[in-house]
Write a structure and sequence with these properties.
By secondary structure, the protein is α/β, with parallel strands linked by helices. It folds into two domains: 148 residues, NAD(P)-binding Rossmann-like Domain (Rossmann fold); 197 residues, Dihydrodipicolinate Reductase, domain 2, CATH 3.30.360. The chain is 31% helix and 23% strand. It contains ten helices and 17 strands. The longest helix has 20 residues. The two termini are 27 Å apart. The protein binds nicotinamide-adenine-dinucleotide. The site of nicotinamide-adenine-dinucleotide has 22 residues, from helix 1. Nicotinamide-adenine-dinucleotide binds next to helix 1.
């Protein structure tokens, strides 16, 4: 296999493309894997600014132009959520691999078309979020699989924050609150990927969903004071049924301004597993905590082995920031392997999100059809 750096184009030069933990600034950590050839954004000045700041050879004002003129093998899709499906399909049609921000698209039809197109053209499709690549997640999966907490009964998954308007957002956060986006697609998607990676595909969903406040005022940043009309539900909670009486409750809201609980708690017949992280959990909490009913003979107790603290693998993941999804694409292309961040997993997550809302509207639990 040719191990020359993959020639890359980036579509959408907004916040996640350019901020410190974002994609473009961190590509410098993997020069042996990628060569950033071009950036494109429908707002040309923004793309030009990024071109200058990161010394990118080529800049374009549209995806069409970039696909037509740039010598690239893959595109990183960093457009806002409502554009993912259509733009990723164009990229695949042009014969380029895709790395997409989450969610994969907003309809099942678009998603099926993406998977079919990638398959028929022999292209690799990697879809964010990246969490299942992180060592703490993989260790949690290993612990559950080897029975460390016994038969899983239920999980509580916190997958929300206060919303981009609640902080000092560097861009205009309006689209996050509007039809086609919202916290379920923006944030709930993280928890769905994680819990389904740990417990397997879900079989049924039941949800509650609504708008807590029809307007939000931007708290800080360049758009401070802007009033946003909220047209997407900003408060969605749902339950997943994994079969065998294993359940999970997951949130996807813009109403968690602070929390001290572990981000994910999984309760099993023989113990409890807590998963935390430094961004969305209490400060100083270890990434994993395990309670075992029989920690020592006849007595339960909490265990936090040192092996679960941040090791070199996690340090590399932290260093790469969001560019880890590009790093994963290159590994998959080079090694000809199916992505861990697969389009099929992303389709299952999307089905859950769409049906959680449908359940909230109809008051019924809804069966899930997809798997991964
Ligand atoms: N901002 C974050 O913290 C964050 C974190 C993780 C993932 N994401 C995901 O990254 C994606 C982008 O988010 P963001 O915060 O960077 O948004 P953003 O609004 O800051 O940037 C999006 C950019 O895409 C451009 N754009 C819109 N439509 C386009 C099109 N058809 N072709 C080319 N360019 C187009 C916009 O002009 C803008 O510059 C979203 O899917 C979001 O869910 C964002």
């Amino acid at each position: 296999m040719d191990r020359k750096p993959l020639k890359l184009g980036v579509l959408g030069t907004g916040m996640i493309a350019t901020t410190r933990g974002g994609v473009i600034p961190n590509l410098r950590h993997i020069p042996e894997k990628v060569e950033l050839v071009a950036v494109a954004d429908t707002v040309m000045e923004r793309a030009e600014q990024v071109q200058q700041e990161f010394a990118v050879p080529e800049v374009y004002g549209s995806l069409e132009e970039m696909l037509e003129r740039a010598d690239i093998e893959a595109v990183v899709n960093l457009t806002p959520i409502p554009f993912h499906g259509a733009t990723s399909l164009q990229i695949l049609e042009a014969g380029k691999h895709v790395v997409s921000e989450k969610p994969i698209a907003t309809t099942m039809e678009e998603t099926d078309a993406l998977i079919e197109m990638a398959h028929s053209k022999g292209l690799t499709f990697v879809c964010s979020p990246p969490n299942v690549l992180y060592p703490y997640h993989q260790e949690a999966r290993r612990l559950i699989a080897e029975g460390a907490i016994g038969q899983v009964a239920f999980a509580r998954v916190r997958s929300s924050h206060g919303g981009p308007a609640a902080g000092d957002w560097p861009g205009d956060p309006t689209w996050f609150y509007q039809e086609g986006s919202g916290p379920l697609f923006d944030m709930g998607v993280y928890g769905i990927h994680e819990i389904t990676s740990l417990l397997g595909p879900a079989k049924r969903v039941v949800g509650f969903s609504g708008i807590t406040d029809p307007t939000r005022t931007v708290h800080g940043g360049p758009f401070k004071g802007k009033e946003i009309e909220v047209t997407a539900d900003d408060n969605t909670l749902f339950m997943l049924d994994f079969g065998d009486s294993a359940f999970a409750v997951v949130d996807g809201t813009f109403n968690v301004n602070a929390a001290k609980s572990p981000r994910i708690e999984i309760f099993g017949r023989a113990g409890t597993l807590n998963m935390s992280d430094r961004w969305m959990s209490r400060d100083g909490a270890p990434p994993l905590e395990l309670y075992r009913v029989e920690a020592v003979p006849g007595m339960g107790g909490w265990l936090t082995p040192l092996a679960w603290s941040l090791g070199p693998q996690q340090e590399r993941a932290d260093m790469l920031g969001r560019a880890i999804i590009v790093d994963h694409l290159v590994d998959c292309v080079w090694e000809g392997k199916h992505p861990d961040l697969s389009a099929e997993h992303a389709r299952h997550a999307l089905e859950i999100m769409i049906k959680a809302i449908e359940s909230a509207r109809t008051g019924r639990a809804i069966d899930l059809q997809t798997t991964f």
